[in-house]
Amino acid sequence: MTEIAKLGYVGVESPDYAEWRTWAPETFACMLGPDGDDGAVRVKIDDADYRLSIHPGQEHRLAYVGWEVLDHRDLDSLEARLEKAGADPRRADRALCEARGVQELVTFTDLYGQPYEAFCYQSSGYRDWDPPRPHQGFVTGDQGLGHVVFVVPDAKEASEWHTDVLGFQTTDIIRLNPPLGDMWFLRSNPRHHSIAFLQMDDMLGLHHIYLECNSLDDVGYAYYDVLGGDQNPDLLMRLGRHIGDQTVSFYIHNPAGFFIEYGWDGLPIPETEARSPRYIDVTKGKRAEMWGHHFVMQPNETVRPYQR
Question: What does the pLDDT average to over 20-38?
Fold first, then answer.
């Protein structure tokens, strides 16, 4: 399908980065990895040394998205394609590779200038999972770190670039009610989507990151016993089940300004399946959710006005 095998890691900056040191373990039973050189809080959900890195910064913003390829040959091939596409690929020096915990790394930008990285050989341990409370672990492996969703000014344009340049495949397209536009879901492995784009005119930024649990009980415990259920003031979407990837999940605002979706039972797409994208038009009365996921207005400090 593509040299990109899966979503590997995401880094953000935040003046409230230190809150993640307690927020992630207490809320989601994540482990903490060793701090970054700048004091960044590193969050572990599997054998990899980290999956999320929350760096100190003066404002809430995306710092980088790391896409994993399987080996150095795939990285060479992707770098050549990025060069032809004008994505400004650059080989990282040893210092940056060590900071990210990978052996080889190429930095580049997407069509809107957002910071991307492609890498191979991420540092990890063996059965290195010892959560702070009983937890059945997260779905990673060949599906990588959950998914990442961006607010973009043109979802179709963003999807076409990621398809043409990075080799993703479109899984679903959902037309939402105004003021939102279309939402496109793209995959690079059996996970229903590793990246998605939510259209909002003249806006750009990180919307949410998804963490998928192996057990529904861990989602329910976090929602009801840790967060207090429907009345938690930080919820963006209450517990529910999506139409598209069929995930049972909830969304919550986090101290770094964006949202975390915490869920279970995402729909896998077999790589051998000949599948055209599914189109769902909510404006024509189609169901937006199987059940639940009631929306509550929340700020997102990582999404900002965008001008070409």
Answer: 97
